[in-house]
Design goal:
Layout: E1 15-21, E2 27-28, E3 32-48, E4 55-72, H1 77-83, E5 90-91, E6 97-98, E7 107-115, E8 122-133, E9 149-155, E10 158-159, E11 165-166, E12 169-173
Antiparallel strand pairs: 1-2, 1-7, 3-4, 4-9, 5-6, 7-8, 8-9, 8-12, 10-11
């Protein structure tokens, strides 16, 4: 991997995501329009109040969290089920599928993002524990653009046998 500054580090990301629901089989989520990871944490600052003015003399970070947001444009029963909090769709004899809206309180599983871009380093993310909740919306009427489904999930911390804990892994591979 080239050290900065280098034009080989410029990035134009593309890729796909593989979803494995808890107790289910891995599947491709289809075309992804947007994929965002947003880490957050609370900052607790201690202020020293001696010497005429308050000064920060210690900072601690608590409550770490990571959220993932996916915008999909392949409207399938299984993708809608992620947004509408449904278990696996029921396949009907006429080829259609039915989902039961809000039949589940959470949708959990593992998510993997595989970068397949031609420009820049490739990013590969493995998130062993993700919990999706109802956060986006779906419009069954599309204007001038393709319809989309927005789903947002929380990456949950995973504890390992060596005593460490994290929210998953990201691997960056240099472009060929």
């Amino acid at each position: 991997m080239a050290d900065s500054p280098s034009t080989t580090n410029y990035f134009q990301g593309t890729g796909y995501a593989l979803w494995t629901p808890t107790g289910g089989a891995q599947r491709d989520l289809g075309n992804i329009v947007e994929c965002e990871l947003t880490p957050s944490q609370d900052k607790l600052e201690h202020k020293k109040t001696r010497g005429g003015s308050k000064k920060t003399d210690f900072t601690q970070y608590n409550n770490q969290a990571v959220q993932i947001r996916l915008v999909l444009d392949e409207i399938t029963a299984k993708n809608l089920a992620l947004l509408l909090m449904s278990s696996d769709p029921t396949d009907n004899t006429d080829g259609s599928s039915t989902i039961r809206i809000m039949s589940e309180s959470q949708i959990s599983g593992a998510l993997e993002f595989v970068g397949d871009n031609n420009v820049g380093n490739k990013v590969h993310g493995v998130f062993p524990s993700v919990s999706f909740g109802p956060t986006g919306s779906f419009s069954p009427i599309s204007g001038d653009d393709f319809g989309q489904i927005e789903i947002t999930g929380d990456l949950l911390a995973t504890d390992y046998t060596d005593g460490t804990s994290d929210f998953g892994q990201m691997t960056v591979t240099p472009q060929a």
